[in-house]
Specification:
- Helix content is 40%, strand content 14%.
- Strands 5-6-7-8-9 form a 5-stranded mixed sheet, with helices on both faces. Strands 1-2 form a two-stranded antiparallel sheet.
- The protein is of the alpha/beta class.
- The radius of gyration is 21 Å and the shape is globular.
Length: 347
């Protein structure tokens, strides 16, 4: 049982700007746009039973599409409460375990994160690893599912980093059979349904840097985000084409009704928040996943990154899905820390 499973708050914000450009391999942007209009939004050519959206769901999707054309274009301002500050000082600013005796501190489903990997992911100038990003995806999906039930939010889903890496591979070497266990789990143990999702996120490391690919069935687009701005336009387009082809293959294999992802428009945003550093690309990836609306990125600046890193570290460690008893976060630890901190301030 966790002694300090507390929630942080996220309110207020800064103004955002629409930032999308259409990348066309041939012809003008208008020509590419007209060539990608889908005459049949639901692919009925799939073998086996297919899922056809109900009239209610179609109306719901139209309302969500209309709403996302004029939303508030800003990111929620981050406010750090005292407990998140203390947690970060205790477990990230000061390393608690050496590499040889690093315990597992987060376990959600098939993914687990050791303290060593967690520390290296969220320390200043750190690098997020695959396991930590996959844990973030699990928590992100639970939040999105909850929000979509109670608010007119977009329905988002983020695939684990390991699955995303396979889906971004060249179709000539793509192994659809390796997805059997993963997709069977999605289809039979969760409410996962490609037919009603608005944004699908895929995160992976390419050329030693995190990238995010977002498939948007709501607007029939695939979008590439390169937080380090190091990948060429050609590479990003190729990754989007690989993803669209492989995702279509998987849907056909598992009789999942979906649109024709290969015909979706390929987009590369411009002027979105990015950096040229050799770190923090994983943190930017998380920010992109939360703030991409399908039409524009809610604006944020690099100044929010330290606080966002701190909040994510605190939230992932203390999330209710974590199966590891949080024996390291005891009231004694907190009280001892506060006494030392108050004594230092008085002196």
């Amino acid at each position: 049982m966790k002694d300090w499973n507390l929630l942080t708050t996220r309110i207020v914000s800064t103004e955002g700007v629409e930032m999308i450009t259409l990348i066309s391999k041939s012809g003008s942007a208008s020509e590419e746009r007209s060539n990608n209009v889908l005459s049949n939004p639901i692919d009925t050519s799939l073998p086996g039973p297919s899922v056809v959206l109900s009239s209610f769901e179609k109306k719901s999707r139209k309302r969500r599409a209309a709403k996302t054309t004029t939303p508030e274009r800003y990111m929620q301002k981050l406010e750090i409460d005292e407990y998140a500050d203390i947690f970060y000082d205790l477990f990230i600013r000061k390393k608690q375990f050496n590499s040889e005796n690093s315990p597992v501190v987060i376990e959600i489903g098939p993914h687990s994160v050791s303290y060593e990997d967690f520390f290296n992911s969220f320390k200043p100038r750190g690098n997020v690893d695959y396991d930590t990003m996959s844990i973030f995806a699990r928590v992100f999906n639970d939040r999105s599912r909850h929000d979509a039930l109670s608010k007119p939010f977009l329905r988002k889903y983020m695939f684990s980093a390991y699955i995303s890496e396979k889906l971004l591979a060249d179709p000539s070497v793509f192994d659809k059979n390796s997805f059997t266990a993963y997709f069977n789990g999605l289809l039979y143990t969760t409410d996962f349904d490609v037919g009603i999702l608005d944004i699908l996120h895929f995160s992976s490391i390419v050329s030693n840097r995190w990238v995010l690919m977002s498939v948007n069935p709501l607007y029939d687009t695939v979008t590439a985000f390169d937080p380090s701005c190091v990948l060429s336009q050609q590479v990003q387009i190729q990754l989007m084409e690989n993803l669209a082809t492989n995702l279509k293959t998987v849907c056909m294999e598992f009789n999942i009704a979906c649109k024709d992802f290969k015909s979706f428009k390929k987009l590369i945003p411009k002027d979105f928040p990015c950096h040229s550093l050799l770190h923090d690309d994983g943190i930017y990836m998380m920010l992109y996943a939360e703030n991409w609306t399908g039409k524009f990125m809610k604006l944020f600046t690099k100044d929010v990154v330290p606080n966002y890193r701190k909040l994510q570290a605190y939230d992932l460690w203390n999330c209710i899905q974590n199966m590891i008893p949080n024996e390291y976060l005891t009231k004694k630890n907190w009280k001892s820390y506060m006494l030392r901190k108050n004594k230092k301030m008085k002196s």
